[in-house]
Design brief:
Length: 432
């Protein structure tokens, strides 16, 4: 088969393109963005050609797919329609691939990428597995039976998937442009989880998860003792976290890991739960967790002079909160500076006060103009970054042209956060 992936530098589309290539297909792509993005590393490794204009010749048997961020009025989609090519939605293609393997679908409002990465790390080093991770990392081999896939609830895309196991990390209000309220979100997760063939692994501490009416066997994990697997005797330090794990109320093992924040312990518990279900022993899990490297743009650290730069994908208030708290845990003696780029007008409007509360954890917060490629600003009159900045304890706007504001910080942690790219802000800061 031959695929033409429009918006190929998007994290999800890049990952899909890599998997399609690994499965023996011919893959080419298009993207409006000409400059380098971290998501293209896997594409370059495979020699997948990326076009930035309409010079690509499309054969009549080419299947065209496109990123959720790409408008149906995009010139390349319109060209494909005129050529009479088959156009297939991105999530439908992923759904087709999930049918080919024993699929472990990792879903939830937060923690999908890290949890998927943890599970894939254990399985690929034991039983062998394919994986689709939303940081632009994808791999497939037809010889592998297992497939770990990060599964997003945006626009109900994950309902096209066919999971053998479903992992649910948490359920919160999100994607308010797609869902009218939390009840609708809960019902959608319920529908997805009940598609599971073999069972569900879910965070039992989450009250919205406990509301789910599931017709599948559920393996609960968390901090509370009413879970099948739980962590206790937790200690945090600037070198990481240590905790004991109990399984079916029996001591399972002790873990000391360079992980920061309670959310990372929960992500690890989900990974341990799936590993147990796959018959992997404690000693192997313990050893492999020590060699885990976090996903791209998830608490990615770099020392720069006397400062620490953190690049993180956090874009929801809960994610910003735990990212800043993790930075506090690891660097308690440094000043904490938050630099946040809001993504989507709807999220900024609906979570305005939550953003304020989360960013106020930092000693100082900078907010950029809103970056959105799938919503029209005219539909959200009066919604700008100012509605966050005006209520911050100590906040102000920052742009590419005013990054010099960050020069004054020494012995500080500069935490750049967004699901949109902040690489240019970081590079401009470094150039100063």
């Amino acid at each position: 088969m031959k695929y033409y992936c429009i918006g190929i530098k998007g994290a999800g589309m890049s990952t899909l393109a890599q998997i399609l290539y690994d499965l023996g297909n011919v893959v080419i792509g298009y993207d409006d963005v000409r400059e380098y993005k971290f998501t293209e590393d896997g594409l370059q490794k495979r020699g997948i050609k990326i076009y930035n204009d309409q010079s690509c010749n499309l054969d009549s048997d080419t299947i065209v797919t496109y990123s959720a961020a790409v408008s149906l009025f995009h010139l390349e989609i319109q060209r494909a329609k005129k050529l009479g090519l088959k156009i297939k939605k991105y999530h439908d293609i992923i759904g087709d691939i999930t049918k080919m393997f024993t699929t472990i679908s990792v879903c939830g409002t937060h923690g999908k990428t890290t949890t998927s990465s943890l599970i894939a790390h254990i399985l690929k080093n034991t039983k062998g597995c394919n994986y689709f991770i939303g940081d632009g990392s994808g791999y497939a081999d037809l010889k592998n039976k297992l497939f770990v896939v990060e599964s997003c609830e945006y626009n109900r895309h994950f309902l096209a998937y066919h999971p053998s196991y479903t992992v649910i990390t948490n359920i919160e209000l999100e994607h308010t442009e797609c869902y009218k309220d939390i009840n609708e979100i809960v019902k959608t997760f319920e529908e997805f989880a009940n598609k599971s063939i073999n069972g569900v692994v879910a965070c039992g501490d989450d009250e919205n998860i406990r509301k789910l009416s599931l017709n599948k066997e559920v393996f609960y994990y968390g901090f509370n003792k009413d879970n099948d697997l739980y962590a206790t005797n937790i200690m945090f330090s600037n070198s990481g976290s240590c905790f004991d794990v109990y399984y079916k109320n029996n001591f399972y093992g002790h873990f000391e890991l360079p992980l920061f924040g309670k959310h990372m312990i929960l992500n690890t518990l989900a990974c341990i739960a799936i590993s147990i279900l796959q018959g992997i022993d404690y000693a192997t899990i313990h050893e492999l967790l020590h060699s885990f490297k976090n996903a791209k743009r998830r608490f990615c650290e770099e020392k720069y002079g006397s400062n620490i730069i953190i690049d993180d994908y956090a874009h929801h208030p809960t994610e910003i909160k735990v990212t800043l708290e993790s930075a506090r845990q690891k660097y308690p003696d440094k000043k904490l500076i938050a630099i946040f780029k809001p993504n989507t007008y709807s999220r900024t409007k609906d979570f305005k006060q939550d953003f304020v509360n989360a960013l106020n954890i930092a000693d100082k917060a900078y907010v950029t103009p809103i970056d959105c490629n799938r919503e029209n600003q005219n539909d959200y009159p009066g919604i700008t970054s100012d509605i966050i900045i005006n209520d911050l304890r100590d906040g102000e706007i920052v742009t590419d042209d005013s990054v010099s504001k960050l020069k004054k910080y020494n012995n500080s942690v500069l935490c750049f956060m967004s699901c949109a790219s902040v690489a240019h802000l970081i590079e401009n800061y470094k150039k100063l």
